Amino acid sequence: MNIFKYTALVVALCFGAVSCDKFLDRPAEDTYNEANFYQDASQCIQGVNYLYNSPWYDVIRGFYRVGECFSGNYYLGDSPYLQFNVNGSDKELRDMSSSLWAVNSNATVVYNRLKNTTGVDQATLNMCMGEALTWKAFAYFFLVRTFGEVPIMHDISAAIAAGDYNDLYKAPKEDIYNYIVMILDQAMTLLPKKVANMDGRIDYYSAEALLAKVYLQKAGVTGTLNQSDLDKAAAYAKDVIENSGRKLMENYSDIFRMQNNKNIEALISWHWDASAQPWTAQNSFQSDLAPNGFDEFGDCWGQWAGPSVALQDAFGVSAAMDPAQRNDVDTRRKATMMLPGDTYDYFWTDWGGFDYLRFFYDKNYGPSGSTNASDGALNCQTGAGCVKFLYGDGADHQAALGVSASRMAYGLSTHILRLADIYLVYCEAKLHGPGSSTTDALAVQCYNDIRNRAIPGAWSEVSSITFEQVWKERNLELALEGDRWYDYVRVGYYNPAFAVADIQAQRRNNLGGGTALDDVAKAYYETGVWNGTGITYNENENPIPSESAILSKIAALPFPSEDVVYNPHLDEPAQPFDLSTITF
Predict the structure, then answer these.
(1) Rg, Å, the chain Cα set
(2) Closest Cα partner for 248 from 388, 416, 414, 419?
(3) What one-character DSSP code corresponds to residue 38?
(4) What is the mean pLDDT of residues 305-320?
(5) Mean pLDDT along residues 300-310
(6) 2-220+553-581 in CATH: which number?
(7) Are 209 and 267 in contact (CB under 8 A)?
(8) Longest C-alpha distance within the chain, in Å?
(9) pLDDT tens digits, one per residue of 313-332
(10) For residue 411, how many C-alpha atoms fall within 13 Å in the half-sphere facing its CB?
């Protein structure tokens, strides 16, 4: 099973080459091995650092396909993630599963090794053990929301020693959520409230924020909303909001810039190493999301995919619209997706900024100079390009981080839990599903604060909020950050009709009309005149997902086929797990 396949990598990953970033320091490969490492505080910190990147690397493509394609935010042609027919042979799903089990394995082995370490101050050991447990909890949080019922593998070393690792049964989802709560409760007893001079690391409030999100997600897992879980989600979120020291960044787009890799809004992040030592320590998102030629390393191939028509609808804009007529009031739109007419001062700074249409239609423009590697056409049939998770060109990377990017290797951090999310967790926890509303003072303040940042100086504050407002705000605030599908999973637990109706109402297909979109955009670039009358929405490319298809994927995505071959119990009903057997 993939659950165990990557366990042997733990030592190799732990002892990769030294990074140029102190946060990512690792011991040199030829100096240490597992037996003689963890001798002092510095080594313990280095020994946990790789959990912030390497084991997560193969999540990247599944992160987007599951989180954003299923949810309708990202267009990927005839992808099975748009058509709701993904199966156990899908490579990206298999890689995602493998990577999540690798995180669980690696975090467990590191935790156990630290627990048995002597001669190191207890505060450092506790901090490092708390980090490892938080990563283990996050891996299981992805697993249960993605695959539903999965085995609980608490101590992989014990399972290997016992030889029963291919004889495990799935646990019910409720047991898995309770297991995650146990892990995070333990992590919070170990982690410092704040990590002095070590920004970007997991602390007490990072784990507490994740716990709040877990309680909100588990609140409806039995089919009806559990008020106790909602109350706990609200209480933990409130503590993070009021006491963590985290703040919303003033400018939304700044959250995602390299110079802000460790920013005051981020709670948990993947911190990547541009040196790609070892391979899998590096960020490769830009390669999949940016169009050919966006950087000079020949590693971008995302020109055929992009933010969906449905996401444009959510922001109230369209790539088919005259840029001069777009009612573009939400600053998050431009920080999330590029549309014709957009320019960016933080990409291609060595060229005075990035011009979306000039990139496609001026062969003398770009990091490769007169040999601009773009295809010369706006190929994405939604007309939009990603902004989040892109870093720009080599000069942008050098200016921000002081080191060079390279092919499929860059150092832009990926923030997978941030304070704005916890604001909205609190808001939703104070509601009671679709159709509900609240005047709770903190919930209303959180909602207004997020809207005020999104529409600075132009938002008229409200005194009450509805579930539907918060539901939409989660999409606008967190769009393309790999999380939207899990909103549908959460609400689908207790109100499947709402989730089905919302997905079926989306415009998930492309803007048709043959080459009309590219022709219109090129003419606009050359003449300044927009004539979009030939651009139409393609109703028929992908059929509207059926109710049964949506509900089956909300319940669980299929296990990788090879896992089921090794452990046929994965095709059998889940069995209750005795959580009283868990010890730390």
Answers:
(1) 23
(2) 419
(3) -
(4) 97
(5) 96
(6) 1.25.40.390
(7) yes
(8) 73
(9) 999 999 999 999 998 999 99
(10) 25
The overall average pLDDT reported for the chain is 92
Identify whether 278 is preceded by a cis peptide bond (ω within 30 of 0).
yes
Buried b (16+ CB within 10 A) or exposed e, 300-317: bebbebbbbbbbbebbeb
Q: Which two tokens stand for residue 402?
A: 């002081």
Say how many C-beta atoms besides its own lie within 10 A of residue 463's C-beta: 8
d(CA 14, CA 88): 30
- For 71, 330, 450, the CA distances from 251, given in Å and listed in that order, are 26, 12, 11
Q: How many Å apart are CA 162 and CA 170, to the nearest integer?
A: 18
Query: Residues 135, 59: contact at Cβ < 8 Å?
Result: no
The single residue listed with the structure tokens 């784990």 is: 207
Token pair of 114, please? 């630290």
Token match 């716990």: residue? 211
Distance CA 476, CA 491 (A): 17
- For residue 385, the SS3 value is strand
Range(s) of the chain covered by CATH 1.25.40.390: 2-220+553-581
For the segment 552-581, the average pLDDT, to the nearest whole number, is 95
5-19, 488-502, 551-565: least confidently modelled range: 5-19
Instruction: For residue 439, count other CB atoms closer than 10 A to its CB.
Output: 11
Closest CA to 280 of 102, 142, 48: 102
DSSP-assigned beta bridge partners for residue 268? 417
Whole-structure pTM value: 0.94
Residue ranges in 148-226 assigned as alpha helix (H): 156-162, 173-190, 204-218
